[in-house]
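User: Show me a protein chain along with its predicted structure.
Assistant: Here is one chain, sequence first, then structure tokens.
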Amino acid sequence: MIYLRLRTFGLSLVALAVTVLPSPALAQEWQETDGARIRLVIEPPVDGATTVRGLLDVELATGWKTYWRDPGASGIPPTITIDAAASADFEAATLAFPAPVWIPSDHGAYAGYDRPVSFPVSFTLARPGLPADLSASVFLGVCDDVCIPVQMTFSQKIEAATGSSLAGARVAQGHAGLPKDAYGAFSVTALPAENPAMVRIGVTAPAPESLELFLFSADGTQFHPPKAVGTDGGMTVFEVSPLRLKDGGFAGPVEVTAVSSGLAVTGTIDVTILPAE
């Protein structure tokens, strides 16, 4: 991908080395950039809560895309960060990811979203109690023919029953729509790989003909799109190679998101990948 400019609220920069933060905007107000508009929706919390839930709405213009948490060779995964100086009442923000799709590009397919998407987010209070001042910075990439890094800041005083019942329903629906834990009829299993430079995965799914896989490793190891190579005992078998592999290879957990006929599950497998000889 080619990145042209950093887009911050109302300001376009040519040099990525320069960082200019936008003035905070009220949560639930749209902030606009090339190809998208973005807002933060907060669920009305109860007094005494330790966590405040929300949705990061990304409304993409026709033809524009944004990335999943493994963004491929040159993408930008969405992130959200608490502004500690302006938001001492909160200590952490956690972004969750709906099931993505594979998006073709001139530089290889990447996992992302080609239509409007809502990312569930959970904000952890430093201590129970409301009101609380929230200020969070969002960073993500949006793409058409080129990709644009976008940074925005959202701020709001959170009070008990802040927001509307509609906001609460939307946030609850967004969190409930995340991929579920894998289960017996829809599960992922690590299989022995003849090639030690590959990952081999078996998946049982309700509609195997529409099955797609997405892999994520917390250590930053990235993967090519998995390829279905056959079946084994009712499982669809996939092989996956790493996009880049650190010296010495990889050993550890990998999260697998499996999508089939509108359903999505996630499971963790332990894999070992050795450098190709």
